[in-house]
């Protein structure tokens, strides 16, 4: 018996060993097939036309997906803002030339930040897309998730209209990708004492973008590695210009620690490490101030008097938008009460429906009989069929007794 069992076990082990390599081979082949599958991203949407108001494209539209190739000098900043692709087209018209770069980003935030990165303070404002500026023969604007940088060999009065034609056909993001950076809402509004210059607003989400757009603080002290976002803007106060820097952190705890660190850096003055950047050196040191509000750290610098600088920094207030989610609080007593209330509601509704239905049917029939000149009730109708029965006394008939001598037959 033991020999039979051992033989059966040996056969099972041999069969299992024979099947295992086949299964392993099939799994390996499936993994290889999955590894060999390449998902091709969708082709980018064409952003620039082949012809524009007499401008004719001179070559194929070039599409670049690498920030280092698109703009080597600003590759780090473009990477921070999330560049998806850049399309470049060269045009000619009557001996003039036009070069257009259309930079596409994953959302509106990246496009707006890149626009503020390239736009320099002092460039005049233009009315193109969501925001535009110009510098001699260069026109820069943004709309949705796209930034357009155009360079004309010669600017004409029609140049702005030609750029508006391009802006009108640019795609618009949807959902969360179409939301502007929330930090912009914390900038103080223009008032008789405070005037914001919107052409000096710069938004950054990384050290390269912050430093490249003229940040006041050293990028390393801000803490972009902790998901910090910054907005910098110039204000005109009664006593002079002031620069406001707002830094938003994910939590109030991080903001508290960074506010203490930045405050200590400002108090260090000439002995600060790293050394103060030029914007801090050019500021009135008596007007420098740092404060915290919620998840925000605010710094004011510039040449305004301390009193006005203090009022400007105090005008920034953090207010969290909290959404209260109700929690279920039903007890057994509450559930029983809800059940009884439901039963009572059903009884009341059913009774009311029955009464209304009876009034409708009975009242309708009564009105119909009344319209025919008959009594409302049919009890008094002459043709009413009934049995004329009356109670009468019937004399009982005596039954004779059977003879006693009568015997039953067998």
* CATH architecture annotation name of the domain at 182-314: 3-Layer(aba) Sandwich
Overall morphology: elongated
Poorly predicted segments: 1-27, 322-329, 406-410
The averaged pLDDT comes out at 84
User: What is the alpha-carbon Rg in Å?
Assistant: 45 Å
H/E order of the elements?
HEEEHHEEHEEEEHEHHEEHHEEHH
Helical content class: 25-40%
Oligomer: single chain
N-end to C-end Cα span: 87 Å
The total of beta strands comes to 14
The CATH first-level class of the domain at 182-314 comes to: Alpha Beta
**Strand content range:** 15-25%
* Largest sheet geometry: 9 strands, antiparallel
Alpha-beta content class: alpha+beta
Q: Number of helix segments?
A: 11
* CATH topology grouping of the domain at 182-314: Protein Transport Mog1p, Chain A
List the helices and strands and how they pair.
Blueprint: H1 2-36, E1 51-52, E2 55-57, E3 62-64, H2 67-70, H3 75-81, E4 83-93, E5 96-105, H4 108-118, E6 125-126, E7 131-135, E8 138-143, E9 146-152, H5 159-168, E10 195-204, H6 207-212, H7 219-222, E11 229-237, E12 240-248, H8 252-268, H9 278-281, E13 289-293, E14 296-302, H10 306-314, H11 332-371
Antiparallel strand pairs: 1-2, 2-4, 3-4, 4-5, 5-9, 6-7, 7-8, 8-9, 10-11, 11-12, 12-14, 13-14
Explain what you see.
There is one protein chain. A hairpin with a 2-residue loop joins β1 and β2. The chain has 410 residues and is of the alpha+beta class. 36% of the residues lie in helices and 22% in strands. The chain contains eleven helices and 14 strands. Among the domains are: 125 residues, 3-Layer(aba) Sandwich (Protein Transport Mog1p, Chain A), CATH 3.40.1000; 133 residues, Protein Transport Mog1p, Chain A (3-Layer(aba) Sandwich).
């Amino acid at each position: 018996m033991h020999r039979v069992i051992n033989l059966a076990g040996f056969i099972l082990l041999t069969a299992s060993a024979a099947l295992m390599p086949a299964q392993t081979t099939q799994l390996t082949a499936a993994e290889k097939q999955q590894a060999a599958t390449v998902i091709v991203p969708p082709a980018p949407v064409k952003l620039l036309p082949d012809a524009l108001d007499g401008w004719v494209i001179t070559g194929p539209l070039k599409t670049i997906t690498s920030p280092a190739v698109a703009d080597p000098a600003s590759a780090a900043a473009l990477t921070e803002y999330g560049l998806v692709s850049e399309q470049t087209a060269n045009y000619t018209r009557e001996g003039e030339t036009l070069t257009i770069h259309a930079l596409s980003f994953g959302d509106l935030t990246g496009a707006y930040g890149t626009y503020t990165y390239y736009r320099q303070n002092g460039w005049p404002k233009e009315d193109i897309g969501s925001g535009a500026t110009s510098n001699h023969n260069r026109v820069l604007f943004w709309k949705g998730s796209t930034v357009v940088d155009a360079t004309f060999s010669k600017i004409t009065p029609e140049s702005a209209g030609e750029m508006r034609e391009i802006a009108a056909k640019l795609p618009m993001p949807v959902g969360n990708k179409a939301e502007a950076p929330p930090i912009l809402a914390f900038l103080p509004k223009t008032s008789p004492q405070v005037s914001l210059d919107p052409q000096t607003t710069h938004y950054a989400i990384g050290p390269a973008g912050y430093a490249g757009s003229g940040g006041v603080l050293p990028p390393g002290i801000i803490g972009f590695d902790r998901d910090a976002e910054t907005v910098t803007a110039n204000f005109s106060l009664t006593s002079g210009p002031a620069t406001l820097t707002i830094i938003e952190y994910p939590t109030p705890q991080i903001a508290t620690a960074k506010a203490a660190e930045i405050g200590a850096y400002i108090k260090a003055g000439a002995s600060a490490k790293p050394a103060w950047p030029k914007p801090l050196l050019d500021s009135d040191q008596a007007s420098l101030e740092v404060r915290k509000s919620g998840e925000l750290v605010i710094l004011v610098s510039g040449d305004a008097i301390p009193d006005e600088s203090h009022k400007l920094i105090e005008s920034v207030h953090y207010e969290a938008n909290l959404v209260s989610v109700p929690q279920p609080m039903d007890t057994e007593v509450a559930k029983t009460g809800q059940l009884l209330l439901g039963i009572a509601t059903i009884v009341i509704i059913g009774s009311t429906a029955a009464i209304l239905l009876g009034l409708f049917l009975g009242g309708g029939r009564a009105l119909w009989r009344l319209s025919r000149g008959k009594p409302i009730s049919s009890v008094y109708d002459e043709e009413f069929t009934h049995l004329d029965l009356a109670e009468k006394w019937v004399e009982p008939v005596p039954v004779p007794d059977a003879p006693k001598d009568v015997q039953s037959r067998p």
